[in-house]
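hi!! sorry for the late reply, been swamped w classes. u asked for the two structures so here they r. pasted raw, havent cleaned anything up. first the sequence of the first protein and right below it the tokens
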Amino acid sequence: MKTLLPFLAFIFLLSSCRSQPLEPDQDRSLPGPLGTATSTNTPISTKPPEPGIISVDSCGADPWDDQPDSEAIQQCIDQAKSGDTVLFTSGVNQSGYQGYLIDKTIFLVLNYAKDNLLFTATDPTDYPLLQATDDLKGFVVSLVARSRVSIYGKVDNITISNLQIDGNQENRICNGHDAVENGLDDSWGSWLVGECSHGLCDAGTLSMCGASDLGDVQQNYQGNPDAWSTGLTVDNVYITNTECATALSLCGAASKIVNTTIDTAGDKPLYQACESTDPDEPEADWSDGITFEGPDHIITGNTIIDATDVGIVFFGGRNTTISNNTVKATEGNHGMFAAIAIHPWGWGDVSGLEITNNTVINEASARCGGIHAGINIGTHMWDGGCVGAADKVSVGNPNHCSAEPSPPQGTLCKQGNPCQIWAYVAAGETLTLTDNYVAGAQINYLVEGLDLLGIFIDSGNVSVEPRYTDWVDDAGCGMGGMNDRWGAFDFVAHHPTLPGWTDKRVHCAY
């Protein structure tokens, strides 16, 4: 059975943050008498340096030729100081423009922590193209090299805007014909020694995963800023042809993804009789559109077309907004397990979450695709929400897995132990689901595994013509005595039941 758990392990490994040695730009002076520092007598200017503008072309990158550009781009980025702007040359619609050919992952922060950087276009109305080459290993662009930057919680206020990043799905391979991530016949890997031990090696497209503190149950990023990356922004980016894992990941706190389009991510067909949209390997290459976690994020105004795992998936955090997004499966063998999913495998507390004014449309094949669940809140669709090793910040039933569990009422899982995971809304808090529009999923709205001590605000949600997808052929899960079957529904809620919603257990991914 297909499961998200391998990618969940990857994403939460990315999120760990520990105290590390000082970075090169940190103060290394020793305390002196009367609180002064022992240093030279050279006056220290308190005036911040003027921000600089660096064109990657100045280091030898050339979007007009057919040569790889990664080394030149990385050289220019490495020269950038906190506060600088890095420019890529526009010209997609001009004759002879090839785009920047990326044969090695571009790291926005490579050797030591930086902040307040902008990566953008010379012409914001004409997105420069960053194109993955056939031999690229790993992501096309990644926020930070974790094998080199020790305190990556100091990587803050990084913005990437007005660019097109293409993952070259046609010629890259996720796991290869041996279905193993080993870099032998696939696009898994990295040019950086030691980077793969930090989980940054899948054939995704853009990773904006900074630091998140998986030891912080309170999600207190303001109180421990070095353990969290904040102010990360993806604005007006066009991401195309992702091979697998995720088109766009975001880890940290108080960050945003806005006005961004993701077109085609992974391959969906489950059955050998169905033609794959990316037929270069066996079943393996699912991909999310947006994968993110942490508190106080804003995900708004984005369009996701033909993702194949989940269109927008949230792994937990407080006070986050998912609004005014469109997720669509187009005609043909396309589809996804959910369009928008609240799956708090990490931070179980999702109090204050708002899911508003989103649109989900399924036009895909009923036999070889389709959106299984339009908007899904809670993890129990995925094998009952049962995991073998939970995180410290997860909420659930410790050392327990059953078809009909009791709500944990905010109980934390035991780190590293089995647990049945729930999405938790604390007493006095809210979860808002309002004014969304879902058409044509098999279950348009599914709430299952919501530990609701607070208030669920449910109004103005429109459900149009739920219909069967390739989900209907599943024979049931069979785990722990479960053998669930289901039809097509507008609103389904189980654990808890909700007024006016159908009470139906759906404890299988597919």
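now the second protein. again sequence first, tokens right under
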Amino acid sequence: MKKIVVLGAGGFIGSHLVKHLKQNPENYVIGADLRKPLYGLDSHADEFHAMDLTNFDNCRSIINSDTHEIYQLAADMGGAGYVFTGDNDANIMHNSVTINLNVLQCMELAKVDKVLYTSSACIYPEHNQMDPDNPVCTEASAYPANPDSEYGWEKLFSERLYKAFAKNRGIDVRIARLHNVFGPYGSWNNGKEKAPAALCRKVAEAKSGDTIDVWGPGTQTRSFLYVDECVQGFERIMEGSYNSPLNLGSARMISINGLVELIAGIAGKEIKINNIPGPVGVNGRTSDNTLIQEQLGWAPQDNLEYGITQTYQWINSLVNSA
């Protein structure tokens, strides 16, 4: 059996990753997080440990000498309403950095040498993402550094932390810079939801002809990666030989107002948009997939309509059952 530890296994992406890994009967998966998944996708892990990973002893208890590899997704994070208000900066930086320091120290003690660290597209310089139609997000553009949030700075620092341990301690590191992963069974109404889930909820709660509030001008662009493509990308990055950061996201940009229109079309509703002030982040961001295609011979497919359909149907069922 291949013993795999997934940290952050109770979160949205982590719970999908565990399910994906368990499709291979040779994988023995150990999950850890503050709690099991909250939104209906029960953990498929062979073992699940509800624990605070900022506690070193907790990390030490599950990272052992028989661990083959680690997927490190655990972080203090959320959507724009959590990350960009500035109210949670200290927790975001302290908790996430502490977890990563614990993980690396435990790997060194247990002589575990392979880890995939999930970074974020939020590490990219704000000044390269002012034009919503032409953002610059090639991997090499990360420096000179100027992320748009403390969340982005923490992710960039942690990338360097993992690379330093790779250089000095012989740990085999993979780094994925995630671009707006979405899908069912994630935060949708607790203040940590991201744009696709938040907008699906607003459309589900609205009647045809209603107006919904949307933060920002609505012209800001993003690309959105369906979670199934994300977890497939994790495995490909882990199995590949490239050990520097790689974008993991869709290359298809859509405006936020355009995303509302897409969701409304899937819902079969006429929805009006009222753009209001609110936290929005940068004006434009998409995944440049040139490098991942070169290194892995693969890049995520465009599954936006399919993914939004799955996400909307799940959230709509919750709204209607409330």
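hope this helps!! also noticed smth abt the second:
The chain has two domains: 2-181+225-248, 183-223+252-285+303-316.
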